[in-house]
Design goal:
globular; Butyryl-CoA Dehydrogenase, subunit A, domain 3; Butyryl-Coa Dehydrogenase, subunit A, domain 1; Butyryl-CoA Dehydrogenase, subunit A, domain 2; single chain; alpha+beta; 3 domains
Amino acid sequence: MRFGLNEDQVLVRDTVRRFLEDEAPTTVIRALHENPAGVESNWWRSATALGWALLALPEAGGGITLSGGLGQDLAIVAEEFGRAVAPGAFLPTVLALKALADSPYAERFEDVISAATVGERRLAYAFAEPGNCWTPRNWQAAAVPVNGGWRLDGTKAYVEAGNEADVLVVSARAPDGFVQLLVPADTSGVERHAGRSLDFTRRFATLRFTSVELMQTALVTPVEHAESAIERQLQLALLLQSAETNGTVEKAFELTVDYMKQRYAFGRPIASYQALKHRLADMLVRIHSCMATTDAGIDAFDQNADNAHTLSRVAKAFVAAKAAAIVSDLVQMTGGIAVTWEHDLHLYERRVAVNRAVFGTPEEHRLQIHQALRTA
């Protein structure tokens, strides 16, 4: 991040970084490749014990703030998760907690929130639908009021931690708009199908809801609040994902530079060759541009500015596209050794590739920006 961090923010950043370096080195990341769950419950409880989940909650709801800016504080943690290509469902946990905390009925969900912030219950955020549908207006999943409660039908796709979560925050179309519902994962009519992931540590699932009967108390976000609440959650998702990608690329750059200092050709480290120095300098400018673009979006989000909608999508479109190109160049700078199983750089390339797709591709967000500018 390019913000000037205060002492509390630096402490959180350093604490998260030390924890991930100690508890999630690349040897652990590689081992998770064979683990169907992606990460063990005990590890997740240890990670949440650091208290970062409380950053997603308002102080009035038992949360904590480091700077008064929820987006800025969470982005610090996101960037560290990216640097470590760390396991754990950081983003869906934050988004689900925000949805619950911002609910007009937040007191209903105090037990769920409290358990999730210490890792005792795992949350998933069911947003997208099959066919790379990340746009609410195209949703088909439907929530219909029946018998004083709700009936939920439809399919949600690309749900991170959807197969491991205890509780699901599901966004769906209602007769007069949208709603969000809290669905225990073991509710009758809920089917969960694990999917594959390019990322070693992340697991995604498809969720099918068939005549799922829920009580009225399952309502998290009512129709009158849902459209604006879902938009705010999406903005936060795009910005935290961009911050994480920035951390991933920054660490990949550092690994590549270290390799180039040790790799000799014609009696000299390859990092000493001017042509390669120029390429590295160009990449560093692009990395800092990604960070600046993300920080501008976070600032707009924290201020709830009118342009937060556009700047969050600018961040996703710019960062995701540039990051993929940068990491590809870094792999080339290693002479291709990074594509081998033994080298760690491909772990970072995998994280960047998954982040590029989740919550919409750069091309989709550029189209949304264009449409927003045309109607402005």
